[in-house]
Specification:
By secondary structure, the protein is mainly beta. Helices cover about 15% and strands about 40% of the residues. The protein has a single domain, classed as Roll (Pnp Oxidase, Chain A), CATH 2.30.110. The model has no long low-confidence stretch (mean pLDDT about 85).
Length: about 180
């Protein structure tokens, strides 16, 4: 199969970062699993849809998440020191959209209503019990990175489905299933 090629190379080699629009165009081609990152502090819950999650190590079990400093959930994560990372299944696109702010009139606490089986984990963070897999984590380090913070998270609990399902992916500004 032939793919149409589009050059993202600058006409003249540049020193320094590329333009934001070129970076965003390139990143559209990086597929990522959709997760909902959720936290709770002082009785207030918040969450966001993200693809910026990766494994750091198996011993000790640690994950890395990247969260924009301007989102409300960032403050809860920072103050609580705990988070859940909920990997969505292919049939959970509506949950991804709710937590991405793509559903009109749905924000804050209302994101947790109507969709998904949300429960409180050991660390009192919201855990999506019907996610493909959920990781409950303690934040062990926060690393500033421009507009975001990278949170190093120690996994203290894993909850998941017994049968493997197709994950929800995000690619080229669209949700899709990996089959």
């Amino acid at each position: 199969m032939m793919h149409q090629s589009m050059s993202l190379e600058p006409a003249v080699p540049m020193i320094g970062p590329v333009a934001k629009e070129h970076f965003c165009t390139g990143m559209r081609h990086l597929a990522g699993a959709c997760v909902v990152i959720a936290s709770e502090h002082g009785g207030v819950r918040a969450g966001l849809t993200a693809t910026a999650v990766c494994s750091i190590s198996a011993e000790p079990p640690r994950l890395l998440i990247c969260v924009n400093k301007s989102v409300f959930a960032h403050g809860l994560i920072t103050n609580s020191g705990a988070v859940s990372i909920n990997v969505l299944a292919a049939d959970q696109e509506v949950i991804a959209k709710r937590f991405a702010g793509m559903v009109d009139g749905v924000c804050g606490e209302s994101r947790f209503e109507e969709e998904g089986n949300w429960d409180s984990g050991v660390l009192s963070v919201p855990v999506l019990r019907d996610a493909l897999v959920s990781f409950e984590c303690r934040v062990v380090e926060a690393i500033p990175a421009n507009s975001h913070d990278m949170f190093v998270c120690e996994v203290i609990g894993i909850y998941g489905q017994l049968e493997a399902e197709s994950p929800l992916m995000y690619f080229d500004c669209k949700f899709s299933a990996l089959r």
